[in-house]
Specification:
The complex is a heterodimer of chains A (about 260) and B (about 400).
Chain A (H helix, E strand, L loop, with lengths): L5 H19 L8 H21 L9 H23 L1 H4 L1 H4 L8 H27 L11 H25 L2 H15 L9 H7 L2 H7 L5 H13 L5 H32 L1
Helix pairs in contact in A: 1-6, 2-3, 3-6, 3-7, 3-8, 3-11, 6-7, 7-11, 7-12, 11-12
Chain B lengths: L5 E14 L5 H9 L4 E15 L4 E6 L5 H8 L7 E6 L3 E4 L12 H11 L4 H15 L14 H12 L6 E5 L7 H16 L3 E5 L3 H7 L2 E6 L2 E7 H14 L9 E3 L4 E9 L8 E2 L5 E9 L5 E11 L5 E6 L8 E3 L2 E8 L7 E11 L4 E14 L19
Parallel strand pairs in B: 3-7, 3-8, 5-6, 6-7, 12-19
Antiparallel strand pairs in B: 1-2, 1-4, 8-9, 10-19, 11-13, 13-17, 14-15, 14-16, 14-18, 18-19
Helix pairs in contact in B: 3-4, 4-5
The chains are: A mainly alpha (about 260), B alpha/beta (about 400).
């Protein structure tokens, strides 16, 4: 079907994303507010756990703000992956009765979550400024960082959506994976000298840098929380992982698409 | 590819068919050790070729599982052929499953906007179309109601109205015309007819032989994923009905044949007045039964009664009579005799019926040869043009 030109595709994406946003908050009083409230609540929980019980959060000034700069993008990442994993299966009747580019389904889930993330980040930035974390020039790097991270999330989402059609375990697996992934990512701790102090193993810290989301989380921390220029390794990591996941995601999705339609 | 043209060139499509399918990884792991899950390749279509000119109305008929819906899905671009080429030119409207893209929590209008983008309409075009779509579906008042509050009928009406709102070059219809009440169905058919008149290509899958014969000029008969016949609609329908008969599938009204066979039907042909063998008869058209009757008795058998009966598909007898009852001449059958019955019916309810024939001699209590529930026939109702004629009109001024 060659008549799906760019304009048509853009329109389809807009519609799917706006459907997603509308549907999510129908009959919900707080509506979009939940996207702020969820990380806020988890921030409060983590804050108490890591300052009152495990007591390492005290090493980081304004630990709650530090937490938020990581929790918001993490929330985007995990919500996007959960939603895109089941996106093909949830729309099986649609897929089997009209032709349209099916890749738009997992990608639309990621984009809908991106809109939330951007709005939440604006609110966070205001709070950060109030507490004296004035951003530096490095804030302009937020845009390329977000683009790269979205590309990576979409790539992983495509892979998972296809996998879930063949094996329903993928959905369960993603939940467990995300739990482990969260603690393996520099969200509640940084990867710098303080991280060494918290984790007490510089070797483990080096290994954690290979985590695909580590680079992005560190970029968020340095741009938003510290107001410094992100380290070069973060950019290398983020770019390499993004390109890799997108390439693999696209290739697998394209290859699997004709089979997926029949398996649904 | 010309808009409205369709090409199927040696198309095959295979599915993986699961027996006791493993849907979780664990099951797959277990099955590595004991192979209880078997998969086999199931060929839904096997070397199917046909092409359709713009403006043709083609029916695809065949038994369940013959590959009709698969063919439509290929033409709609939903499936990719395992081998061969399937191409459709121009804009396609597919009526495969109505209202599937609707989200229950969104209102009628929101759903129309969303689905418009799925079928590739830009926002302004869609906005302009909405009043018309709502009006045709008779749902103008309910456009701001979430569709989960719609009845099934309303839901389907909106789906149909949307799917046919834009002039397509090709219209793919899969048995979805049971939309709403009889009056709305009539409206749906009218709309489909208007596409037909505008010279749009129509591909129609249905088990309703009456609808097929009315709408289409050509038919493709599929049998186990292969083309059994491709040709003029009436000829193909006859072939299909003949096949259904010979399959002996419906137990209650399966064709039965019995008798002493002292006198028997050697061959029977159903034809229309022009002499073409047919199983489909227009309103007002005579059904002519030509029989070659033979006997194994020596000499001539006198006083043979030649009867027929017509039944509904469920076996209920509607008409049954013979030449004795109607005071027509009885048959004298020698070695090989040709006889025919010309049946003229007033069709009140068009549809599928079954014709049975018999050779008997009631006074001698002899049943020579019965062919009960033997010949399926389809009786059509004609669209009469013009449907109204002015018979009288006067003007007065008082």
């Amino acid at each position: 079907m060659s008549n799906w030109d760019f304009g048509r595709l853009r329109l389809l994406m807009e519609s799917l994303v706006s459907k997603d946003l509308k549907v999510r908050y129908k009959r919900s009083v707080l509506g979009f507010g939940w996207f702020l409230l969820k990380p806020l609540f988890s921030m409060i929980v983590y804050y108490f756990v890591f300052t009152r019980i495990l007591r390492f959060g005290g090493a980081i000034p304004h630990f709650s703000l530090f937490l938020l700069t990581g929790l918001l993008p993490w929330n985007f990442f995990s919500s996007s992956l959960s939603a895109s994993t089941s996106s093909l299966l949830d729309n099986h009747r649609l897929i089997r009765s009209i032709y349209f580019p099916r890749m738009s389904l997992p990608v639309a889930e990621v984009l809908a979550n991106l809109i939330h993330l951007v709005l939440a980040l604006i609110v966070l930035e205001a709070v950060l400024i109030i507490f004296g974390h004035t951003p530096g020039l490095s804030i302009i790097l937020l845009i390329p960082a977000l683009i790269l991270f979205t590309v990576m999330t979409a790539g992983v989402g495509m892979l998972l959506s296809v996998g879930n059609v063949f094996y329903r375990d993928v959905k369960q697996f993603v939940e467990v994976l995300l739990l482990a992934w969260f603690y393996a990512s520099p969200i509640i701790y940084p990867l710098d000298s303080i991280g060494v102090y918290i984790i007490e193993s510089p070797k483990l810290l080096q290994i954690l840098k290979f985590n695909p989301v580590a680079g992005f989380m560190e970029i968020m921390h340095s741009i938003l929380y510290a107001g410094t220029w992100p380290a070069a390794w973060c950019w290398v990591s983020l770019s390499v992982w993004s390109v890799m996941f997108l390439t693999v995601g696209l290739a697998v999705f394209r290859k699997a698409e004709p089979v997926v339609v029949k398996e649904l | 590819m010309k808009p409205g043209a369709i090409l199927m060139d040696n198309v095959s499509l295979a599915y993986r068919l699961y027996h006791d399918r493993a849907v979780t990884l664990r099951e797959t792991m277990l099955n590595v050790f004991n192979r209880s899950t078997k998969t086999e390749m199931f060929t839904a279509l096997d070397g199917v070729s046909f092409d359709v000119e713009p403006g043709e109305a083609l029916a695809i008929i065949g038994a369940n599982g013959a590959g009709k819906s698969t063919t439509l899905k290929l033409l709609a671009g939903i499936y990719e052929p395992s081998s061969g080429i399937a191409e459709t030119g121009g804009r396609i409207a597919s009526l495969l499953d109505l209202g599937v893209g609707f989200h229950p929590d969104l209102t009628g209008e929101e759903n129309l906007m969303l689905n418009g983008s799925l079928i590739g309409l830009d926002r302004n075009t869609m906005k302009d179309l909405i009043p018309e779509i709502a009006d045709f579906a008779e749902l103008t008042r309910f456009m701001d109601t979430p569709v989960k509050y719609y009845s099934d009928g309303m839901f389907m009406r909106l789906g149909f109205s949307l799917a046919t709102a834009v002039d397509p070059d090709v219209l793919l219809i899969d048995e979805v015309l049971a939309v709403g009440d009889a009056r709305f169905q009539e409206k749906c058919y009218e709309r489909i007819w208007s596409f037909r008149k505008k010279g749009k290509t129509i591909i129609f899958v249905s088990h309703d032989m009456n609808a097929v014969a009315k709408l289409c000029t050509r038919a493709v008969l599929l049998n186990d994923g292969r083309i059994q016949m491709d040709g003029e609609v009436e000829a193909v329908l006859s072939e299909y009905l003949e096949g259904v008969r010979s399959k002996h599938d419906a137990a209650a009204v399966s064709p039965k044949e019995w008798g002493t066979r002292e006198v028997w039907f050697d061959s029977v042909t159903l034809r229309n007045v022009s002499g073409t063998p047919s199983r489909i008869f227009q309103k007002g058209e005579k059904i002519i039964v030509d029989a070659v009757i033979k006997t194994r008795l020596s000499g001539t058998v006198d006083g043979v009664v030649f009867g027929f009966s017509l039944h509904r598909p469920d076996g209920e007898t509607i008409i049954g009579t013979n030449n004795l009852e109607m005071n027509e001449p009885l048959l004298k059958v020698s070695e090989s005799t040709e006889a025919s019955i010309e049946i003229m019916l007033d069709v009140e309810e068009p549809g599928s019926y079954i014709l049975g024939l018999a050779l008997t001699d009631p006074p001698a209590h002899k049943d020579y040869h019965w062919q009960e529930f033997f010949y399926p026939v389809t009786l059509l109702d004609a669209r009469i043009d013009p449907p109204l004629r002015l018979s009288d009109v006067t003007w007065k001024q008082c």
